[in-house]
Amino acid sequence: MPKPTSRFTTYLTPAQEDELRKIANAIVAPGKGILAADESVGTMGKRLENINLPNTDENRRKYRELLFTADNVISNNVSGVILFDETFRQSTAAGVPFVKVLQDKGIIPGIKVDKGVVPLAGSLNECTTQGLDGLSERCAEYKKGGCGFAKWRCVLKISEHTPSHQAMMENANVLARYASICQQNGLVPIVEPEVLPDGDHDLETAQRVTEEVRLVYICCFRMPCSFTQTASIKKKKINRDPVSITFFLPLHLPPGITFLSGGQSEEDATINLNAINTYAGRKPWPLTFSYGRALQASVLKAWGGEDANIKAGQDELIRRAQANGAAAVGKYAGGGEGAAGGESLFVANHAY
């Protein structure tokens, strides 16, 4: 372990930092983004319910196999896939671990390591995220099992009196501790302080709150956390109006920023990502996607739980990935609508 050179030392060796930097840069490579397939058992059940499938282990496994075994062309636009713990341990019907399926395509497996949101005591219906206990051991297992990055979601809500300073500080400290633990175990941390789009507030309020959330990076500075290996900071509900693009300005810049779809329709999520990347303002980092619903809605509709429709579902996934890959470099020309079309994918108080 290197000797501390300042109060901000990361305690990482040059080789460790180099490995993390390479992973982080690969995640946000031009024209590529993340497929978020980290839905919990309960959330996956809601997805399957929409196509009249029971929420069984086998149905969840079969659906994830559909996603991960899509034609290798998917790797042209998908750099990483975020897995849920159950999915990390699953395999194809032929017995090939999903992690290996992704690695063979040149896609980096990632893993959701938080254990969900819980009420924040003393707050007005705010929350924090649990899972720090035993996190180092879990990260070590996931790294050994082939993962290269991790995800941890904290949630902030906008209302007349929230987010409170208490909630922002609590979640910023949690994210900083998570990021440091991940890096010590060789995983690039996706730092996700998610400002929910729920509410009737205006754009100026969303901008103000998002700027205040830069507390996350102040807390990271106080931890042994390397900024150059922090893969992304995520924000929601970006509007096509260029003024909205100004509402995230991280205090310290990671290698890239990946946007959530925020319950927008598939097409809107793509068009808005493209608008951000064609905006003439200064953009010193890659701006790409980490989409779950906005990459999967059409897939589920086309598949419908029928083996005969697996190829149709995979074709939808490839179509959406290609559309968003183009949007990530400002070259989406439209015409990539899938089976879900312009349907809103918004879920109030969204949970994974």
From TrEMBL:
<dbReference type="Pfam" id="PF00274">
    <property type="entry name" value="Glycolytic"/>
</dbReference>
<comment type="pathway">
    <text>Carbohydrate degradation; glycolysis; D-glyceraldehyde 3-phosphate and glycerone phosphate from D-glucose: step 4/4.</text>
</comment>
<comment type="similarity">
    <text>Belongs to the class I fructose-bisphosphate aldolase family.</text>
</comment>
<dbReference type="InterPro" id="IPR000741">
    <property type="entry name" value="FBA_I"/>
</dbReference>
<dbReference type="GO" id="GO:0004332">
    <property type="term" value="F:fructose-bisphosphate aldolase activity"/>
</dbReference>
<dbReference type="GO" id="GO:0006096">
    <property type="term" value="P:glycolytic process"/>
</dbReference>
<keyword id="KW-0456">Lyase</keyword>
<protein>
    <recommendedName>
        <fullName>fructose-bisphosphate aldolase</fullName>
        <ecNumber>4.1.2.13</ecNumber>
    </recommendedName>
</protein>
<keyword id="KW-0324">Glycolysis</keyword>
<dbReference type="InterPro" id="IPR013785">
    <property type="entry name" value="Aldolase_TIM"/>
</dbReference>
